[in-house]
Amino acid sequence: MDSTVSDATGVTPLVAGFAEPDEDLKAWQRERDRAPVATKIVVAGGFGVGKTTLVTTVSEITPLQTEALMTEASEGTDDLSATPGKLTTTVAMDYGRITLDDDLVLYLFGTPGQQRFWFMWDDLVRGAIGAVVLADTRRLKDCFPALDYFESCGLPYVVAVNHFDDSELFEPEDVREALTIPPHIPVMIMDARRRISVIETLLALVGHALDETPEQSPAP
Ligand SMILES: Nc1nc2c(ncn2[C@@H]2O[C@H](COP(=O)(O)OP(=O)(O)OP(=O)(O)O)[C@@H](O)[C@H]2O)c(=O)[nH]1
Ligand SMILES: [Mg+2]
């Protein structure tokens, strides 16, 4: 794999909204008396499952990407059999933003999939309200490390099967059983290339995270 990250595409400043033309501004950016609810969401899963695709599909700003070209050096380490067209891999993170319902702002952080970059997860999940664990039914075991990670740190998560056209279509309950996902955790079948499908997944996560978060009683 190439060691440089400098060939990232579409890099924008991390300050959301900084470089956006006026007509792209959201209501919460134009009106100073609006305080948006800002949340951080992590998109995790195995190598090549579609994390960067998901963030890119829904981001309303040019997503920050840290893609590096894959070379022969990663042969034998990275299994490209399910995604033969894949030329790059994420070496740090993906970052995007989507505004839902006018003032619920989700900041999306995609993790790198390759095992050698997992040390970054602890930093990436800090402050997140929850995570989407992407799975590919042809390589279900690849999502186990992400499931274990979020189970052990207690971060709410949903399981989203990114359905690839050439793979068999399973029911969510079959996937739940195969992965032994507890009944209260949403499992959905989606397509990381379809905006509406990604939004449904994100809404399921926000709802689940709200259910899992103990209500705070107002200060006396
Ligand atoms: N057919 C199909 N292809 C997809 C889908 N999602 C992603 N792809 C393709 O699968 C490949 C992997 O996508 P990425 O989004 O780079 O995967 P990733 O999880 O970010 O990969 P890493 O960061 O390297 O772990 C790319 O070639 C995508 O075009 C999908 O839903 N259906
Ligand atoms: Mg990626």
Automatic annotation (TrEMBL):
UniProt KW Cytoplasm keyword: no
InterPro entries for the chain: Gliding_Motility_GTPase, Gpn, P-loop_NTPase
UniProt keyword terms in alphabetical order: ATP-binding, GTP-binding, Hydrolase, Nucleotide-binding
Domain of life according to the entry: Bacteria
Single GO molecular function: GTP binding
Family: Belongs to the GPN-loop GTPase family.
Matches recorded under PANTHER family: ATP/GTP-BINDING PROTEIN-RELATED, GLIDING MOTILITY PROTEIN MGLA
Protein name, per record: ATP-binding protein
Organism: Streptomyces cellostaticus
Taxonomic path: Bacteria, Bacillati, Actinomycetota, Actinomycetes, Kitasatosporales
